[in-house]
Specification:
The structure holds two protein chains of two kinds. Chain A is of the alpha/beta class. Chain A has helices at about 25-40, 55-60, 70-80, 95-100, 100-110, 150-155, 160-165, 180-200, 215, 220-235; strands spanning about 45-50, 65, 85-95, 115-120, 170-175, 205-210, 240-245. Chain A is built from ten helices and seven strands. In chain A, helix 1 crosses helix 8 and helix 4 packs across helix 5. The radius of gyration of chain A is 17 Å and the shape is globular. In chain B, strands 3-2-4-5-7-6-13 form a seven-stranded mixed sheet, sandwiched between helices. In chain B, helix 2 (about 30-40) links the parallel strand 2 (about 20-25) and strand 3. Classes of the chains: A alpha/beta, B alpha/beta. The structure holds thiamine diphosphate and iron/sulfur cluster (SF4).
């Protein structure tokens, strides 16, 4: 019998704790595939966030540090400055990256730290049970915006790719979506490109991935994935924002 | 070679001597010379100096470098030390070695920039959340600022925990002679636990603090407590001066101990049997130093009364413990402490 589909080598056998339809599991797999393809499992150090992906340390077979909420880019900076020849990436949710960790996010980018930031934007705080996030869309109902997010009292959603595009230290920024097969393939390509840029050009890259959180959106997986492609992609347009190394666009 | 140096510079020079790989800082008076010295000298010694965007980032960079298995240091004061506390709790929870220097200034809040010892509780009793301890060393001279830095790195690696040097604005700023090439030996410890890239290791290394299973978390905390007890047995350190026959003992740490020493000498000239106990390790607190019977002990501090609580616990009601403190950047002077000794000798101190 021929194996045509299997778990990446750099992902452990531990069953994911993620909900059905959640973007985290898909993105873990993509990262695993890219690490395998680049042959970097023994050389990679991951920094996982506080959020639903905190237990990423059980799923990734590379060395892992769990960072305090929002501090993953600072932790990754500490690691990478000591071990410049390792592949170092942070993996962060929207609360982690764009609320409590905004300063760390922007300054790691400003320094052009030689790391890759994987940003899971699901417009909500997953782990704590569905509160408003810095990326929650206007009108979106969450536990802490029960009448829908009112931007005039609760702030407008932050578009992190656009914000970081203003920062000179950045080499590569792309926003992808985890909804259709085509988009998921594009997301994998982006992650791979970012890792190659890190390895070969010492580049800081930022990959935003629009993901579903069916549980806290109160939707079925199918409805949630549809929302990613529709409402979310409308406010957070997909595409390459910066690519100073390769030829722009795809 | 003897060199005149500021205390802050001595800390930095001794850290480089100890093989520090990274220093992550953020400017705040009165500790900024540490950053300035590191910015100038650490890169030329093969290390990394980085000015972080905040003390929060700095301490989390420390977490990254320590987790990767390298010697790393940060320093701060006042509000900056408060910002580091979450990170310190994570470092303790992940059993990561590092050295943290607090050059104390007056508080609370922005407080002032003059020297103080009002962060004793924060350093010794926790500061951040959860059950954890730091080893806390209290230098009293520029020479000790350097020596204790070397010792701090050795202890941190030996016990896999953060070690704090609790200094103050005077010690940081004043200049004294130091023999930078005659510092204690640098000890080397293997770090097979470090998240440095798996390489040929079979299992991956994880640096983490999350234990969702309460039984497991309790086990982790209790095993750390065992380590703290061992540290308390092995490492209590203090200095005694004229204590053999002393009836009235002054106890003070850091710069205050030097003032107290002069007061004790003057009390002796007046025929009072006075002595000085200077705690060197604040955690573990040198309980053993207070085993002998005295008529009274006076705890002098640049605070509203913090170490005095540990002195009371050590004395455990066997004789009176009095307190004299100045705070907010004020120093107790020799005369004031002498006056306390005289009153205690006459039984008039309350
Ligand atoms: C300092 C601090 N504040 C708050 C929390 C509680 N907390 C845990 S996860 C989380 C939000 C996570 O949301 P997000 O980053 O969007 O990730 P997701 O769970 O959606 O993947 C919060 C607020 C914490 N652990 N630490
Ligand atoms: S709560 Fe949301 S983000 Fe968390 S695992 Fe479930 S679907 Fe994923």
């Amino acid at each position: 019998m021929k194996t045509i589909y299997k778990k990446p080598e750099s992902i452990s056998d531990k069953p994911f704790h993620y909900c059905p339809g959640c973007g985290h599991g898909v993105v873990h797999r993509l990262i695993g595939e890219v690490i395998d393809e680049l042959g970097e499992e023994k050389n990679t150090i991951a920094v996982v966030p506080v959020g639903c992906a905190v237990m990423g340390y059980d799923y990734l077979k590379c060395d892992v540090l769990e960072a305090a909420h929002g501090r993953a880019p600072a932790v990754a900076t500490g690691v990478k400055r000591c071990l410049p020849d390792r592949l170092v990436f942070s993996y962060q949710g929207d609360g982690d990256l764009a609320a409590i960790g905004t300063a760390e996010t922007i300054h790691a980018a400003a320094r052009g730290e030689n790391i890759t930031v994987i940003f899971i934007n699901n417009t909500i705080y997953g782990m704590t049970g569905g509160q408003m996030a810095p990326t929650t869309l206007c009108g979106q109902v969450t536990q802490t915006s029960p009448c829908g997010r009112d931007p005039y009292t609760q702030g407008f959603p932050l578009r992190m790719c656009e914000i970081l595009s203003q920062v000179d230290g950045v080499s590569y920024i792309e926003r992808c979506a985890i909804d259709t097969v085509q988009h998921i393939n594009a997301a994998k390509k982006a992650i791979k490109k970012a890792f190659i840029y890190q390895r070969e050009h010492g580049a800081y890259s930022f990959i935003e991935l629009l993901c579903a959180c069916p549980t806290n959106w109160g939707m079925t997986p199918a409805q949630a994935i549809e929302r990613v492609g529709r409402e979310m992609s409308e406010y957070f347009p997909l595409g390459v924002y910066i690519d100073k190394i390769g030829s722009c666009g795809r | 070679m003897k060199q005149m140096m500021k205390g802050n510079e001595a800390v930095a020079a001794a850290a480089i001597y100890s093989g520090v790989k990274c220093f992550f800082g953020y400017p705040i008076t009165p500790q900024t010379e540490i950053s300035a010295y590191m910015a100038k000298h650490l890169p030329e010694n093969g290390g990394v100096f980085l000015q972080a965007e905040s003390e929060i980032s700095a301490i989390n960079m420390v977490y990254g470098a320590a987790g990767a298995g390298f010697r790393v240091m940060t320093s701060s004061s006042g509000p900056g030390m408060s910002l580091k506390q979450e990170g310190i709790s994570f470092l303790a929870g992940a059993d990561l070695p590092c050295v943290i220097v607090n050059v104390m200034r007056g508080g609370p809040g922005l407080g002032g920039i003059q020297p103080s010892q009002a962060d004793y509780f924060q350093a010794v009793k926790g500061g951040g959340h959860g059950d954890y301890r730091l080893i806390v060393l209290a230098p009293a001279s520029v020479r000790e600022m350097a020596e204790f830095t070397v010792r701090a790195f050795n202890l941190a690696d030996k016990w896999r925990m953060p070690v704090m040097i609790l200094s103050d604005g005077i010690l940081g700023q004043m200049m004294e002679a130091v023999e930078i090439d005659e510092l204690p030996a640098v000890e080397h410890y293997e770090k097979p636990w470090a998240a440095s890239g798996r390489g040929e290791r079979k299992e991956h290394n994880i640096i983490k603090t999350l234990y969702l299973d309460p039984e497991e978390l309790e086990r982790m905390v209790f095993s750390r407590e065992e380590r703290y007890k061992e540290i308390a047995r092995e490492h209590q350190d203090w200095e005694e001066y004229l204590c053999d026959d002393a009836e009235i003992v002054v106890t003070a740490y850091g710069i205050t101990a030097r003032i107290a020493r002069a007061a004790v000498e003057r009390a002796r000239e007046k025929g009072i049997k006075a002595g000085l106990i200077r705690p060197i390790t604040l955690y573990p607190f040198p309980v053993k130093a207070f085993e002998n019977e005295r008529r009274a002990v006076i705890c002098a501090e640049m605070s509203a009364g913090q170490m005095v609580e540990d002195v009371r616990l050590a004395v455990n009601g066997r004789y009176p413990v009095y307190f004299y403190g100045r705070t907010g950047g004020m120093l107790p002077d020799e005369e004031e402490i002498l006056n306390c000794i005289e009153r205690a000798a006459k039984g008039e101190m309350v």
